[in-house]
Each structure stands twice: as structure tokens, then as C-alpha cells.
Known about the structure:
- By secondary structure, the protein is mainly α.
- The chain is 63% helix and 6% strand.
- The protein contains 17 helices and 6 strands.
- It has helices spanning 25-42, 48-60, 72-96, 98-116, 122-150, 155-181, 199-202, 204-225, 267-272, 286-291, 329-333, 336-367, 370-398, 400-420, 425-454, 459-479, 488-512; strands at residues 4-5, 240-246, 251-256, 298-304, 307-315, 319-320.
- The strands form 2 sheets. The chain has a 3-stranded antiparallel beta sheet with strand order 1-2-3.
- A hairpin with a 4-residue loop joins strand 2 and strand 3.
- The chain is globular and about 60 Å long.
Amino acid sequence: xxGETYGRPPAGTAVIGGSDDCLSQIERGIxxxxxALLHLIVGIKILWGTITPYVTSYLQMFDExxxxxxxxxxxxxxxxxxxxxxxxxxxxxxxxxxxxTALLGTFLxxxxxxxxxFCTSLSSVVxxxxxxxxxxxxxxxxxxxxxxxxxxxxxxxxxxxxxxxxGFGPFxxxxxxxAYVNPNNEPTNDAGLFPPDSDIVQRVPSMFVLLSVCYATAxxxxxFLLSEPSESDSTDKIPAAKTTPNSNRGESAPMLAKxxxxxxxxxxxxxxxxxxxxxxxNDVSQLEKASYGGTGPITAKRTIGGSNIRRHQRYGSRxxxxxxxxxxxxxxxxxxxxxxxxxxxxxxxxxxxxxxATFKSFxxxxxxxxxxxxxxxxxxxxxxxxxxxxxxxxxxxxxxxRTIEYVSYASPIFMILYxxxxxxxxxxxxxxxxxxxxxxxxxxxxxxxxxFLFGEKHMGTNYGFIFFIFGVSSTFLIDICGYTSIKFxxxxxxxxxxxxxxxxxxxxLRYLTTDIRDEVIMKH
Length: 524
């Protein structure tokens, strides 16, 4: 009705000259910091590459057949545990909230790490780290979804800031583990392991106890800093809607004034104000014409499984905007773009998985310097975390799909050079760190891509499903290497080939989605 206010814009909507809609900048910053702090422990799965020689040497005390190839199973089961619970973590977050979900994940991560201190066989370590993986998957999406509710714009940058903790955590905890277990930088033998009777091996159980305390501390603080947007803090409202005759239906339809007093309308607002006025592909409601200065959209319907799932709309040359029906996970699974996203993610992301798991085992026979390799791995983890803000900023500038495409081509090139130059410390350190940095782009860019293509309402479960398939597939590719005796050099080149395939798939993804744009929410 005339004179009525429609409602409030969502948290984070840009308001020119206005105050924040839900939370003050400080309060939002606290939530964002809490998400990054929680991701300190979410990223510990890539710590395995740093502690592999210690744990493998310890297990050899009880089973002389244990090798670094076989202990790859510990690494892969952690990823598998994460993949299994990513979808469930999204469902759980909807039911109990981000904070409670994060607390549950923290408990599983710290408890699984503590249990590892009692393990004396490979199978028992696998079980304990599977628990850690379940915790990682449970907690991973909660802070991202929570912050998305606070920040509706620049999602790639927000995701990059949060997942910076994913790289910084292994950097910090890797240094702590190495300083505690091998303070004197004692060298390994020709197999890249330590003598069973050395003090280094004896410290492994207490190392797990120390790490479990660190994880619990960071996780608890980060979880309690998460909070939901406060509706009571909202003061700005969308201007009053007025009604105009709808010649198509013979009834009155709401129409917004052309000027929004500085408020940029979101897709949610437009949907709530009766987007069902769209009668056909080229017939547009009075509401949308007025909202965009009289420029009507050209609506392209996309049919999935025989039903109209989504409409993409283009509003002239200056402003491009998309309105989509939110896809449930079942609907998303019928969308071919879903499987293209997953395939591209596997091809571009598995190289980082492989490098994180094997860089120390690969480099020890050539360099025989545990502290140097620990430093390389820790710096690599840090690069993985810090680069995510860079990738997010680059995505907001160049485009998200273009950024992931560039990264996908760079990653296998780095892998080839890394394989050819293992005896050069400077080159080895640079290439490992670079590979970690490129890997970080996958974690930063695929969540907003999923939200962009498949909607935000079911983002937790949708991205959980994507990561499940991605994680299981990557785990399978790496785990089968643990059953072989193929040299690391040859395996590195095989994964480089997989990386080039992933790059081609990401090029295809960018091409197919070129006309799906929403430059306010995420630059294509």
C-alpha cells in the first residue's frame, strides 16, 4: 500500500551516507576475526606434511614396515573426514547456529588430536585423525556462512580474510611442533626418518597433547566471537512503495520510487516485492522498470529437470544484476554447472593437497635439513593463508572466474619446476611456498562461486556437497599413491598433468558463465 515501508535491507547493504544497518563496523570486525581465528584449527590438516617424519619414525618403533608412502593414509583420511561432514556441517549450522556448530567442530578436532598421543599403530592414528577430519568438516563452513550474513558484498574478499587463518594455523602450529620435537635440528637418515631410539621420536606423544591444547584454545575463542546479525540494530529502511495499476493482471502492483535514498536494492529485496509480476521473457513489471530508472530487463530462463529453476536478468549497459531462484542441493545436483565446478576444483586443488602431504618426504633425501624444510612448509602454509586475501581482492578487481582460471594454469607449472629443482634450497622454498599460495585460491574463490551460481539460501549444504565430492575424489587420487612404490618425482608429474586438465575445465566454466553477472555481489 502507498506510504508503507517495505522492510530493511540485509546486513552489509551499501548505504550512501547512512549508518551500518545491523552491526557497527567494530562488531562486524569481531565476527570476522572470530571466523579467521576458528580457521586456524580448521587448516591443521595440511600440518601433516611437516610432522610426517616424526610420526612415521615413531610408528616404526612398533612396525618396521611403516613408510612415508603408507602414512599418506593418515593425511587422506583427515580430508575424507572433512569431506564427509561438510554437507552435514551446513545442515547443522542451519539448525543450531554458527557458534554451536563451531564449538562441536572444535571439540572433535582437539579430542582427535589428543587421542593420537595414545596411538602406537598406523590404524589407530588413522582413526584419531579421521575424528579430526570430522571436526574440520563440521566447523569449516559455519564462520563463512555467519560472515556472509553480515557482509552481503565482496564475498570473495570476506572468504579470503576468514580462510587466511587456514594457512596461518599450520604455519604457527608447525613451528611449535618442530621446535618442541626437534629443537637441535638433528638430521634424518637416507630414508628421511629419525632413529627409533632418538629423543625426537620419544617426544611425539607429548607433541600431540601440546597441539590439542593449542587447538582447543584457538577454537573456543573463535567460536564464541561468532554472532548473528542483530535485527534490533537496523534503522534504515527501503523507501515507501507506491502502487500502480498492473495492466496485465488488472490489479495494483507495488512500485518503488526511482531514487532509493542511497540504498542499493538487493536481489532478496526484489524477490520479496513480488517478482512474480514477470509474465514472460521480455515482459517486465512496473516495479523493476522503476527500480532501474525505467530500463527493463531481458530475462533468460534456464530450465533444469523440466522446471523453471532460475531466471537471469540484464538491466541495460550500465548496471547488470541477476535474480535467481535459490537452488536446493538436489536441484543443484541436476545442474551441469555443479559438476563442472567440482571437476575444475579437483583438477586445480589436488596439486596443493599433494604438495602439502609430501613436500618434506620428497625434499629430505635431497636437502637433509629438517628445520629448513619445516620453515618452508610453515611459510608455505602462511602463504596459503595470506594469499587468500590477495586472491579475494584480485577476484573483486579482475573477476572471480578469471582469477581461478589463471591460478589453475600456474599451479601445474610450479609443480613441474618443483620436481626438477629439489636440490636448490632457494628454488625449492620458493616453489613450495608458491604452490601453497596458489592452492589457497581454491578455498577463497569456490565458496563465492557456489553462492553466485547456486544461491545463498542453501549455500552451506550446497558448498558442503561440492566439497564432499571434491574431497573424496582428491583423497582417492592421493590415497592410491600410498599403495604404490612409485617415486615421488614421477607422482609429481602425474599430478601436474591432472592440474592442466583442471585448468582447461575452469576455462570452460568461465566461458559458459560469462553472461551470468551480478557486479554488485561478485565480479564475474
